[in-house]
Write a structure and sequence with these properties.
8-stranded mixed β-sheet; globular; 292 residues; alpha/beta; binds iron/sulfur cluster; TIM Barrel
Length: 292
């Protein structure tokens, strides 16, 4: 397998085959993100993709799930994705799920018919960086789409039967706005019904716009206590049935994983205990998060 640049994938895709179809991120402008600053966006050739698939099929045999990397692989047009999906099915005929990171913008670029065609080629699951349902925060993050876009495009995905895993970012609204952001975010979740939630926390990495904003005092970070309270509020308000909540990303203040609403009380207790047992100075400060 030939990989170019640093590879990122959701923690729970640790056992999934990673097939590189793009290098870097086509957007590369989110205010907090430095993941692909060192690499120019490009696409992998079909020839290289086929070589990788051939090698993977010899090594791994029969696979049911594959994750296409990199940062926003769903940026590829439907005309680029369809032959890739066909090659995957050629080498892994029993493949059930082709998944990848997708931005809301990438859904907008595709027609309803194209989404349906991609679903029929087993591109039936996407990791969508929602981050928040708080309009002002979304704008500050420079994600390149509005909250209205999120509602509309997730609805289109649902109609095409393409499931989505929503990625949320705690702390992204900054000091004093976590609860307000949690309420807005849960409105989006309850309406658009992701099949799963992956929850991370805003980090301040060297070279990001938001780190500069902190230095210039135009963005005041949420404290660890506020981040935990935001997460608690999200868990409290979610009404989607049987939705796995993965708050175990290493960047998070506390590791919380469970199925909602079944584990709601247990998960809230973990947060309450965490607040109770953590040093007040730490709770009221901002922990340095060094890497994703
Ligand atoms: S957060 Fe995702 S979409 Fe935004 S710049 Fe980073 S990789 Fe690209």
């Amino acid at each position: 397998m030939k990989y170019t640049g640093t590879i990122y994938r959701p923690p729970i895709e640790a056992n999934t085959l990673l097939l590189q179809v793009t290098v870097g991120c086509a957007h590369n402008k989110c205010s907090y993100c430095t993941m692909y600053k060192d690499v120019r966006f490009s696409t992998k050739s079909l020839e290289q993709i086929e070589k990788d698939l051939q090698e993977a099929s010899e090594v791994y045999g029969d696979l049911r799930r594959i994750f296409l990397i990199n940062g926003d692989a769903f940026v590829l047009s439907a005309n680029r994705l369809k032959p890739i999906a066909k090659l995957i099915i050629k080498y892994f005929p029993n493949m059930e799920i082709i998944t990848m990171y997708a931005a809301i913008r990438n859904i907008m670029d595709k027609t309803d018919k194209e989404l349906e065609e991609l679903y029929n080629l087993r591109i039936n699951d996407l990791w969508v960086g929602l981050e928040t349902g708080h309009e002002e925060t979304l704008k500050n993050m420079n994600k390149g789409f509005t909250l209205k876009d999120s509602y509309e495009q997730l609805e289109r995905l649902n109609k095409a039967k393409i499931r989505h895993n929503g990625i949320l970012m705690l702390g992204s609204s900054g000091k004093g706005k976590g609860i307000e952001a949690a309420i807005d975010t849960v409105k989006l979740i309850n309406k658009t019904k992701p099949q799963l939630l992956g929850v991370t926390t805003l980090g301040f990495f060297d070279g990001s716009k938001i780190t500069e904003d902190v230095k210039n005092k135009t963005f005041i970070p949420a404290t660890e206590l506020e981040v935990l309270e935001e997460e608690k509020k999200i868990i409290e308000l979610i009404e989607v049935e049987d939705i796995p909540f993965y708050g175990s990303h290493p960047i998070n203040a506390t590791s919380i994983t469970g199925l909602l609403p079944r584990d709601k009380e247990k998960m809230i207790k973990i947060i309450d205990d965490s607040i109770k047992n953590t040093d007040e100075k730490l709770l009221n400060g901002v922990t340095k998060r060094n890497s994703l």
